[in-house]
Amino acid sequence: MKKLVGAGEILVEIMAERIGQSFLEPGPLLGPYPSGAPAIFIGQAAALGQPAGLIGAVGDDDFGRLNIDRLRVLGADVSAIAVHTGHATGTAFVTYRADASRHFVFNIRNSAAGLIETNAAATKLLAGADHVHVMGSSLFSDRAITVALSAIETVKAKGGTVSFDPNIRREIMQASGMREALDQVLAQADIFLPSGEELFLFSSATDEKGAVDELLARGLSCIVLKKGAAGAVYHDHHGAVASPGFAVDEIDPTGAGDCFGAAFVSFWLRGAAPAEALRIANACGALAVTRKGPMEGIFPLEAVEAFIATGNTQ
Ligand code: ATP
Ligand code: MG
């Protein structure tokens, strides 16, 4: 089976307990939960049985151990996660607003996560990789950008493939060089997985079809538009395939896009037809939102298949 590698931020997430809770005053918090978009992605891919490993860095602290232990339990290759003493593991504090939008306070660049590098263990992991997945949120510093671009270069040089989820977080969009790096990654991607308005950050078109056509003409193999509870739509040079979402009670939306993407890419790498890859991906995205915490809704393939057998699409 093809091996998938991710590179980027490994964080713990700490969540405000109440909807609408402000971080401008003390309040009850939940967590720590293992997190970081690439970590969620790699954890879900591994849980589905895809060989998958992560390049990243944590501190020599309980938050770092929480993350490494979780990824290991899910079956991921953690050999390229560096453990640094003297730097704390990165954090993301999140509070949900009444309108369902989210506000984050991140500590990524100045945490252990910011020390990401292509060290000997990362080089070894990449030597065995067939596919690299990049999250836009992982392009948070010059150093992180260098790691992502060199992973892409290494994997593409041996005929491998690339997927890209912009995963835009307003709170880290201002990082220097991020905008250019997002475009550079997209230019080398085979699979593009935007959600909501992210599609329009990369196209001059103002309508969905126009943007999809423009981006496909630039060399992508396929575009998968994530549409929250409504499911997803796949586009390639032959046409489009839509797949409805599964009906679930949404407890916590964070991580859905990452779990969805991991499932889609894993099944794409296995040669599944778009409709099948979308069905598994929608199921993983739906299951992800049924638990508080971004990685708590990651399930193994058997549980995902059982959910599909009994789940209702919308
Ligand atoms: P994230 O918050 O992780 O960045 P995203 O914005 O990248 O998420 P979404 O479109 O919100 O992506 O969700 C990804 C997928 O997860 C959807 O395409 C769908 O399959 C599933 N999903 C998300 N929310 C729900 C929901 N409320 N009910 C059912 N499925 C959902
Ligand atoms: Mg996302």
From TrEMBL:
Top-level taxon: Bacteria
Any Pfam family hit: PfkB
SUPFAM superfamilies named among the record's database cross-references: Ribokinase-like
InterPro entries xref list: Carboh/pur_kinase_PfkB_CS, PfkB_Carbo_kinase, PfkB_dom, Ribokinase-like
GO molecular function: ATP binding; kinase activity
Carbohydrate kinase PfkB domain sequence ranges: 45-296
Ranges annotated as spanning the membrane: none
Keyword annotations of the record: ATP-binding, Kinase, Nucleotide-binding, Transferase
PANTHER family, A to Z: HEXOKINASE FAMILY MEMBER, PSEUDOURIDINE KINASE-RELATED
Family: Belongs to the carbohydrate kinase PfkB family.
Protein name: Sugar or nucleoside kinase, ribokinase family
Source organism of this protein record: Mesorhizobium muleiense
Taxonomic lineage of the native organism: Bacteria, Pseudomonadati, Pseudomonadota, Alphaproteobacteria, Hyphomicrobiales
